[in-house]
Amino acid sequence: MTVRTRFAPSPTGFLHIGGARTALYCWLYARHHHGQFILRVEDTDRERSTDEAVQAILDGMAWLDLKADEGPFYQTRRFDRYREVARQLYEQGHAYHCYCSKQELEQMRAEQMARKEKPRYDGRCRHRTEPVPGVQPVLRFRNPEQGQTIIHDLVHGDIVFENSELDDLIIARSDGTPTYNFTVVVDDMDMRITHVIRGDDHINNTPRQLNIFKALGVTPPEYAHLPMILGPDGTKLSKRHGAVSVMQYREDGFLPEAVLNYLVRLGWSHGDQEIFSRDEMVALFDIADVNKSASAINPDKLLWLNQHYIKQGDATRLGTELRWHLERIGLKVDDANKLAAVVRAQAERAKTFKDMALASRFFFEEFAEYDAQAAAKNLNAETLPALRDMQSRLTALENWSAEQIHAALEACVTALGIKLGKVAQPLRVAVSGGTVSPPIDATLEILGRDTVLTRVARAIAHIEAPAA
RNA sequence: GCUCCCUUCGUCUAGAGGCCUAGGACGGAGCCCUCUCAAGGCUUAAACACCGGUUCGAAUCCGGUAGGGAGCGCCA
Questions:
Q1: ipTM of the complex as predicted
Q2: Backbone dihedral region for residue A419 (phi beyond 0: left; psi -120 to 50: alpha; all else: beta)
Q3: Which is catalytic among the residues A236, A239, A292, A419?
Q4: What is the pTM of this model?
Q5: What 8-state DSSP symbol labels residue A293?
Q6: Is the bond preceding residue A72 a cis peptide, omega within 30 degrees?
């Protein structure tokens, strides 16, 4: 039997980090077993589902490169099928019409709460034989009253529920539209899903679904309930925690491989290994190694992973990512070689592309003014001789390469009897406007001779006429 | 309230009865390297929620307690 997993989000918002991990695990499990990964959009709640949300989820999965083998399927296009199965259940006596009004149900719940009981439908329409005139009934599933329903959960082990704890859930609303617990069963059945991997907030739904499968005479899939993902403070994930949408991570300068690597390790591990390529994840992933307890997001670790992939990745490819972020701050750059060179030079000092873009502006545009403190300390009468010396050495340089620039620097240091810092730092301020940049030789090389000489001249002029 | 789930350093985790003086990673601290910022190297502090059992032996098995969480919709 080939493994078939599904990711079944409801399009009521963007793809958040928890959903992304669920999708990743489903995808990994399918890939690992050479099976299929199916995407299903659970949009039966027409009030809250939006096309934008559907697109946002698709975008998020595309960014993470989690391709579905089948789908996306939309539940709203399958209403006929749900109606058909509901009818079957009704005809076989597994479902019945309930005419209770919402107010009546609410009152019942209130009374139960007052009695400190678990609020649930008491089955008062179970044996009704006559319709109530003028009332469009809902269809309720006739849940078994005795016995137990056991989930053989792949991550939690057996979870036992007394059927007497379960009530008769509504499978079709009075307008005839189907509800969640029912559509899930019909879809998982029709799509021949073998493994349902989802958040453990669904554990309580599972016995109901299992009973519907049983009534339908169908073998249910295996279940694996994943622990929740918490915010950095250990509380429930929310918008207050910053980047909740996976696309927000892209905006913030993260690489999809870093996000994926981070996510795969949140709730799953393979010994002490921290870095996983896509292929390694596929080869190594197993539900047996998934944890049971909820885990909090650690932004620092994601940052660390992101930088790991920035340092590790192909500079040309990463250059396109840098270009995207430069564009976002108003800089249009097309020189792929220069972008790659900047990526290589900045990789060690940038945890995100957003930061890298910000720190790399001076490579691509003239800076407006010097950082006041930096200029005061590094562009003054004391450093003028070194700048002048370098100005002529750089002008005379045969090959504009980091090696040659470095040699010129060494020669300058020897000639003037000063420390390297005494010339490197003034030069840095001269060409970048501030005190932070990649090593000065590499910085000058990337900038190019013309730009460097122009900026050095500008610095010298600044020293000679500080008022300007 | 009821049902269900969870509990190893701050965080992510290793750990399937003796390999545990509890390991790794992020973050922290210190040192080294150094033209800035970083990156890197080395060192270091830091945890088995609690109480009982079972066993020659328990982080690992069992029971209870405490704490956290989820669910209890004509939402998904």
A1: 0.95
A2: beta
A3: A239
A4: 0.94
A5: S
A6: yes
DSSP A417: T
Residue with CA nearest to B1's C1' atom: A116
Residue nearest the C1' of B25 (CA based): A274
A72-127: pLDDT as tens digits: 999 999 999 999 999 999 999 999 999 998 888 988 898 888 888 888 998 888 98
Asked if A343 contacts A322 with a C-beta cutoff of 8 angstroms, the reply is yes
Count other C-beta atoms under 10 Å from residue A222's C-beta: 16
> In the numeric block, which tokens belong to residue A372?
């006041």
CA→C1' distance for A450 and B62 (Å) = 78
d(CA A196, CA A204): 14
Q: Strand B nucleotides below 7 A of a protein CB?
A: 1-8, 10-16, 23-27, 34-39, 69-76
CA atom of A278 to C1′ atom of B76, Å: 30
Closest among A240, A176, A159, A187 to A75, alpha carbons compared: A187
Nearest C-alpha neighbor of A258 from the set A298, A301, A228, A316: A301
Q: Which residues pair with A215 in a beta bridge?
A: none
Q: Are A41 and A53 in contact (CB under 8 A)?
A: no
* Interval A235-277: pLDDT, tens: 888 776 765 899 999 999 999 999 999 999 999 999 999 999 9
Measured between its terminal Cα atoms, the distance across chain A in Å is 78
Is residue A214 among the annotated active site residues? no
CA dihedral for A323, A324, A330, A332, sign (positive or negative):
positive
